[in-house]
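Appendix B. Raw example, untouched.
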Amino acid sequence: MDKGTDLSLLSLFLPEGLLDFFDIVGFEQKPIKNPLYDNRLTVFLEEKKQIPERYKEHTFKASGFMEPRVIDDYPIRSNLVSLSLKRRRWDVLEDGKWTKTSRDWDEFIAQGTRMSKEFAAFLKEING
């Protein structure tokens, strides 16, 4: 299998809607010492160069990337899964002055955690 096919298959396991904002740029699988899992699968995602909707009418420019944020997602087979999200930063001209901003990720990341929203909801449900 080639890397393009591997990346297409990985997309099937990602939180719904994530690929609307991110591109898969790679992945790695490393052995770990864990009684339940053999490997850690890390999927590397980079935010697309699309300004958040609320700033489309403003003057803006891309301002690089923030440090990647790693969140946990559902395990797949014998793999713990992490998503490494490399998010963009934007300079936006508002009321005559430049401010730095980024997209709000509350849609995908559970508040106060380093887990995908879906995975956190699942864990909350099984723990009662």
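End of appendix B.
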